[in-house]
Amino acid sequence: MSDRSTFRLSLLAGATVLALAAAPAFAQAQTDNAAPTAAAAEPEGLADIVVTAQKRETNLQQTPISISVLSDAALKERHVQSLYDLADGAVPSLRVATFEARQSALTVGIRGIVPLDANQPAREQGVGIYVDGVYLGRQHGLNAALFDLERVEVLKGPQGTLFGRNTEGGALSLVSRAPSGEFAGRVNAGVANYGGYNVDAHLDLPEYKNFALKLDGVVQHQDATTKNPLAGQAGWNYYDRHGFRAAVRWKPIDGLTNDFSYDNGYDANTPFYSQLLNYNPNGCVAGAQAAVPACTLPGTQYTALTGTVKPLMPGVVVNGSSRMKTADIGVPQQPSIDKTHGFTNSLRWKVSPEIELRSITAWRGVTATQWDNSGGAHRVPVVNTPAIGSVTTSCTAAAPCAFSRYSLADLRQNQFSQELQAVGTVGQFDYVAGLYYFNEHVSDDAATPNSNGIVALTNTAGQVTGYNYVILDPCTGSAGFGSQPGCRSIDRASEVWSKSYSAYGQVTWNATEALHLTVGGRYTHDKKRGVLHFSRNVNYDVNTAAAATAGYKPLDKSWDRFNPMVTLAYDVSDAVHAYAKYATGYRAGGASSRTANYQAFNPEDVKSYEVGLKSDFWGHKGRLNLAAYIMDRKDSQVDISSIQPFNGSNFNNLVTINAPGNTKIRGIEADLTLKPVQGLTLNASYAYTYTRIPPVLITATAGGLSTSVYQNFYIVFTPRNAASGSVDYELPLKGADLRFHLDGNYSQATQAFDQFATKNEASLIFNGRISLANINVGAMQNVTFSVWGRNLFNEQYIFRRDPSNSLPGSPTSSVTSGSINNVLGDYGNFNAPRTFGGEVSVKF
Q1: Between 170 and 11, whose confidence is greater?
Q2: Do the Cβ atoms of 774 and 782 come closer than 8 Å?
Q3: How would you label 638-659 residue by residue, b for 16+ Cβ within 10 Å and e otherwise?
Q4: Closest listed residue to residue 523, CA positions, set 635, 434, 420, 449
Q5: Whole-model pTM?
Q6: Which of 107, 247, 265, 619 could form a disulfide with 340 if both were Cys (CB 3.0 to 4.6 A apart)?
């Protein structure tokens, strides 16, 4: 265990001991007012769920929005420690996936709005992530440890009116537990397989002179699940997280509440291992392309294939059926590190019964350092090793043949936001009005040196007798460059400044006790300015001639949008509520730093039509919510491989364009909850999502010839059918409660990349937990012992499959012939293996 880990555990352990030592002093005062056990307090029917989707507290069943809510109890039963733990499909229409190069950057999608690559500074996400009302501008750092959450609200469909830009698919709102002003504490500690352990401590202090303080500390650790054969190097699917949060609530007078919080998080992690799933699966060979119809690159019209598919290097393992426990070739690998911090001040003033004024001020920042060497020999460049017995002068000790692409990147982001709100009720009208300002500065850089080499061993006659793998010099070993800072050939480096201003309002007219009409709108002005400092190790700030030759133009654009919303809701009865809704949203434009000319793209816009029904039945022992929607997205932002001239050569760039026409997204969602007998709760959820992007005309020019080909694009990580179900049972015992939880989550196969029809694999994941809860031990109340398991049956499925290394290269010298020199095979990532452990929780 590292000194850092020892220090963190000691810190939390010390805080725990102090809190436990203080508990007896308060125990007597607590005894007479001790809360009853959960079983005793449990209502016979389903409890009401409070949400804040309309900027005010409302009953979920009476809120005309499709919403899924995960309570703190549900998060605990599923052993959700970070947002990535929701990737198994707890909410079927919510899709969560890690960025390929590291776990701390998450791709989050709702209802088929899923950005493929929002990791670029000038590109935005399609689902807004909010923590206590504060929008997070980047998806970096999202997988940090979660603090003491009260609930997670998944708001589906465009939320452009109340939540603003980049909420086309919806919003994911995390609500933290506020200071209570009463002494209380909780300590939870556990151990798990793969060297896992977790500790979290939460302490509420009594109110003093109108101030209440709450402290939260979290530590989470897991060793690698795929080992690295290279001694002293990190394996894959490793994480080491810790975080601290302090919240202060000040209530100087009646009606005035000020909440201030500070949080700090640290996440060291490695990506999932990228296995070689097959070898030359499309049967690529040189000759007429028509002879091998599967060996074709989307968006091209090759008539001939040139080059050679090289044999696998020695020791390389092809495994597309099971998760590898040990990598085939050891490579340098160190954890990527994300550091997050934030300051939030939320002021609420109840001026009168008709109006409450609010102010939410926030500063946040994240720094991300990426080290990804998960592909090893499974990604380009593909090495042509000399054959045994041949005489060669290649791959020598003096000049090893390089391989293993070490993907390195740094990102630095700071944001400031200020929101002013007025919320209230006047007669038959409920209203929300607000002003919003957002200011963000982001910079990044990236490099991809090779870390490994292969050397041919020869006899005295110069004939090859075998091979050795070597580690290249980390500063100069990759064509004069390396992986260490200061030694890198910078592929790209960019910097972006974004500002957003908006004004919004929403009014609900309660025409009768049953009929409610809501209208709203939001005006947004976005301005984005960006520069490309480096492209392929050419400094554009210095070499302006090369920048001009590449057609480089700094980004300097602004956009204006008005996003209206209309909802008609009707209370059929006290237990049945129906609604019809029209809503819009948009995602801001930007520029692709993966291009030599910093090519810009425009925003995309979405319109949504939705009908829904929310019902309670069976004496509030049953709850069924249904929603059906049609969404049309205009100017969809998609990525294409495009050839651009640069510095005397042609290069393949990843260009973001706006696809013509309307992308169609259609869906149905259903959520059913039953409580047939006391202590038993059953849940079932289902989401059907149909998506289609119109074919895009791709034009390529090379070697004096040009082609125009229609290419299909796909929406990633969005299953056509997805479902989730859970069973919770609580059995009161003498002096304790016995709790059982089991959930199952199904997802049909999805696309991992928008350019390829190749799909990932379907999944069915089960999680479970058994707890002996609410045990009274002396002065301490509510001691809980539990065992848990995630992926109980150790399901193995490929959640990301990349076929790009199985296909011919993009045209650089000719549009009629494609090279197969770098064809190797599909590589991909398997899901996390089964994890299990035990925990003890103490409340006082």
Answers
A1: 170
A2: yes
A3: bbbbbbbbbeeebbebbbbbeb
A4: 434
A5: 0.91
A6: 265
